[in-house]
Amino acid sequence: MTVDEAREWLESYFYYGKKILALESEMSELRLRAMGSGINYAGTQSSSKTNNTEKVLIDIADEETRIEMEINAVHTKRAEIRAVIDSLHNPDLEAVLITRYISGYTLEQTAQQLQYSVESVKKKTNKALMLLAKLYTKIPDNTL
Prior knowledge:
Helix content is 78%, strand content 0%. The protein contains five helices and no strands. The chain is elongated and about 65 Å long. It starts with a helix and ends in a 9-residue tail after the last helix.
């Protein structure tokens, strides 16, 4: 793994968070559709209408299951990234990477949060990325 690959891989944590939000939004939309499809048609509709409603609800349930599996997979990928950061066994470097990539702070915000200069954050980030590049010769599967 190169330093640039390590940086890109850590940055994916942020985008995985965005993907989780998008999937949760999609799940909410499905649930609204399900509520709209679940209107009681008792005695006023033909059995084909009831069967059609059941099919829609089954399709929505299947889609919800797919989305839940995808959300779980993304959570797993985020946990892998966090475990890699923790594997540095250097609290100072871990704090910089967590603040920078997990919390998504800018260099300036990270410096302010950790009470370092921006230059110090840059150096610590680069040191941590070089360590990760040495420790991990292959980036874990980070496809979305």
